[in-house]
Automatic annotation (TrEMBL), chain B:
Superkingdom per UniProt: Bacteria
UniProt name for this protein: APC family permease
Pfam name, any one: AA_permease_2
Species whose genome carries this gene: Actinoplanes flavus
Membrane topology: Multi-pass membrane protein
């Protein structure tokens, strides 16, 4: 069994890691979103990481264009970039494609980093996998940070604009911000709209993909 | 770096995405669940005879199928060309402009809710009748309420009857309907086969509008094929095939089975018997020849078929609310989702709320669940979908007429069939409006027969006014009406969509 490493305080986690924390229960590590939706927003977050590291840009025609072929530091981003370099598609195709696999990849990254512990429980017919956080305060940090900044009216960093936008895309922001206060929601919307074009496009396209997932027949 | 061809061969990405998509038959079964064959044959048509006293319903099914076939050509062709081809209002927006798009959306919300609530009434009444036959007496509204609750749970937790369950139920329904029909045809009244109810002459009299409106109600749901275009393996072929297969299957089934009933009773007796026996008629006619087992199975399948249709229209209505909420056309709350199940929660709860209020009103005021709820409301829903189809045909013509200069394949045929469909569906709509009192079984001067169709006019006017308000006060919402999921990127695309007239 994997034993979580002592990690100390984690503050500058990549957006996909923060999102992973936010969509899992802090208490028992259970996934709180529908797997399809979780896959889509995590795919958006990984593409966002590549945009933030300067590897990728999103054109006005929604195409994901690779601008730097320097290998990213992170293995998961590397594998996503490999896909992006091999074929050319609009983001509307990439999101559902990546959504198939990214959940497991980000989860593995979290496990490797010692942030969560994977636990598998078997019941009568079902198998349930949970990712219990190794450190409660690290797990709570993303929403505490977002909520605090929004309440104070501070400007959000670009990575938080991405994170906030993705939370709105999956309609999870109200739960995360634990707030019925319309002002917090509106501030988040306002802040997310100030993000650079590529990030805003990515967030918008992720929201569109989630909406399609809600409206499907299957 | 190798660039992929647009076709899926050679592209890992496109092949992976195609793997989980719908083929022709799952699509056919999905849309036929909404059409609910046994419900139409077993209770739609018989109630139609009883309420309207118009005998030519079987031939009307064939005529309507032809009109819908024409409609489907342009509809499917347009679905292929526009992205986010979802509901009717996407087509109307792209073809006729945003104000008409909003008007169409409002009409569609009314139509699908009416359809669903009508089915709830039928479910309550017919299930109560079935239980009564087994010595259990339960008021219809209690069963209808239970049905609404069950549909609500399914809706919010997004439990869809999956393809295999639907396919099994549908095949069983079809087999039972055919067995009943064959028993009826082989035992005609007076010993001779009659074709009176299949004579095209039945469509020329002043009863035509009524018969056609009843018939079109039975087909509502098959427009769903295009809604799922983006989920099919090959949108250009799967959707077209599924649409025409579904259309041909239910046209044949409806026409044959309802004709069989009229043969077994004799065309001159069918109205009297339908009035006396209601939804039991088709079972009573066949019972002496097929054995009690088949009849019991048939009655059970009638109930499951009603439930599948209720759920299907619940989902359609919920998705309309959801899309309108998400696009910001109506309250944003309607666009909320249930995170765990990715169900359109706001829309689903709203639809359930409407159904609960309707069942409550009918129970409180003691209105008749079979004629005034099931028949009136489903016919009202069917009439609404008829109007939507007529509008959509017009939109298809307008869309392709503007497109003529570019990519020309299939444009002329789409325009031609679109014009024919618009004329045919428009003519049926006009006939129906004039005949609405007969359709509802009311006296010519009854205000209800004026009020019900006028609801659509009210919805359309409200939609146009609302579009005007949005254009003036919330231009960022107005700009992306009918863009479907693309509305999420609304604030980023300052220029209006090139394909949308102002």
């Amino acid at each position: 069994m994997l034993v979580p490493r002592a990690r100390g305080v984690v503050r500058n986690a990549p957006p996909a890691d923060d999102l992973f924390r936010l969509i899992h229960s802090e208490r028992d590590g259970q996934l709180l979103l529908h797997p399809d939706v979780a896959g889509l927003v995590l795919a958006g977050a990984l593409l966002g990481e590549l945009v933030l590291t300067g590897h990728l840009t999103i054109t006005a025609a929604y195409e994901a264009r690779v601008v730097s072929r320097m290998p990213p530091n992170d293995a998961v981003c590397h594998s996503v970039l490999d896909h992006l370099m091999r074929e050319t598609h609009p983001v509307t195709i990439w999101l559902p494609f990546l959504a198939h696999s990214v959940y497991g990849q980000v989860a593995d990254r979290m496990v490797r980093g010692g942030h969560v512990v994977r636990r598998e429980t078997r019941r009568l017919l079902t198998r349930r996998v949970t990712y219990r956080p190794a450190d409660m305060s690290n797990a709570a940090w993303p929403w505490a940070r977002l909520l605090n900044r929004l309440n104070r009216g501070d400007e959000l960093a670009t990575s938080d604009q991405l994170l906030g936008g993705l939370l709105q895309a999956c309609d999870w922001h109200r739960t995360v911000l634990q707030s019925r206060d319309i002002n917090v929601t509106e501030t988040l919307r306002y802040e997310a709209d100030k993000a650079p074009d590529a990030i805003r496009l990515l967030v918008g396209l992720t929201e569109a993909a989630v909406r399609n997932a809600v409206n499907t027949a299957t | 770096m190798s660039r992929s061809a647009p076709a899926s061969q050679g592209s890992v990405v496109l092949q992976t995405l195609a793997a989980g998509k719908l083929g022709v038959w799952p699509l056919v079964f999905t849309v036929l669940a909404a059409a609910a064959p046994l419900t139409v044959v077993g209770s739609g048509a018989t109630t139609g005879w009883a309420v309207t006293a118009v005998t030519g319903i079987p031939v009307a099914y064939i005529a309507v199928a032809i009109a819908l076939g024409l409609f489907a050509v342009g509809f499917v062709a347009m679905a292929r060309r526009i992205s986010h081809a979802g509901a009717f209002y996407t087509y109307v927006t792209r073809g006729l402009g945003r104000p008409f798009g909003v008007a169409t959306a409002f009409m569609a919300v009314l139509a699908y809710n009416a359809m669903q609530i009508g089915l709830v009434g039928g479910f309550g009444y017919i299930t109560a009748g079935f239980l009564d036959g087994h010595g259990i007496t339960v008021p219809w509204w209690l069963i209808a309420g239970a049905g609404v609750v069950l549909v609500a749970v399914f809706g919010v937790s997004r439990i869809d009857l999956n393809g295999k369950v639907l396919a099994t139920l549908l095949i069983a329904e079809t087999v039972v309907a055919l067995v009943l029909a064959i028993a009826q045809v082989t035992h005609p009244a007076g010993g001779t086969l009659t074709y009176t109810t299949l004579q095209p002459a039945g469509l020329l009299g002043d009863e035509a509008g009524t018969a056609l409106a009843i018939a079109i109600t039975g087909f509502v749901g098959i427009e769903g094929t295009a809604v799922f275009a983006e989920e099919t393996k090959d949108p250009s072929r799967t959707v077209a095939r599924a649409t025409f297969i579904a259309l041909a299957m239910i046209c044949g089934l409806y026409a044959f089975c309802t004709w069989a009933i009229s043969v077994a009773t004799g065309p001159d007796q069918v109205v009297a018997r339908a009035t006396a026996e209601g939804p039991e008629l088709t079972f009573n006619l066949a019972a002496p020849y097929v054995g009690a087992f088949i009849v019991t199975i048939g009655r059970l399948l009638l109930i499951t078929s009603l439930f599948a249709a209720m759920l299907s229209f619940h989902n359609t209505a919920a998705r309309y609310f959801y899309s309108l909420g998400r696009e910001g056309i109506l309250a944003r709350w309607l666009g909320t989702t249930a995170p765990k199940s990715k169900a359109p929660r706001g829309g689903s709860l709203t639809q359930t709320g409407l159904a609960v209020i309707a069942v409550g009103c009918y129970a409180w005021f003691g209105w008749d669940p079979l004629t005034q709820m099931f028949f009136w409301l489903t016919v009202l829903g069917g009439f609404g979908v008829l109007l939507l189809m007529a509008l959509t045909s017009t939109a298809v013509v307008a869309y392709f007429a503007r497109l003529r200069t570019g990519d020309a394949s299939g444009v002329t045929s789409s325009i031609l069939t679109g014009v024919l469909a618009a004329v045919a569906l428009g003519w049926i709509s006009v006939q129906t409006v004039f005949d609405f009192n007969r359709l509802l079984g009311l006296a010519p001067d009854d205000p209800v027969a004026r009020i019900l169709p006028a609801l659509y006019l009210a919805a359309a006017v409200a939609g146009l006014l609302w579009a005007g308000y949005l254009a003036a006060r919330r231009p960022h919402v107005y700009r992306v009406i009918g863009d479907g999921a693309a509305a999420a990127i609304a604030p980023l695309t300052a220029v209006p969509h090139p394909a949308v007239p102002r």
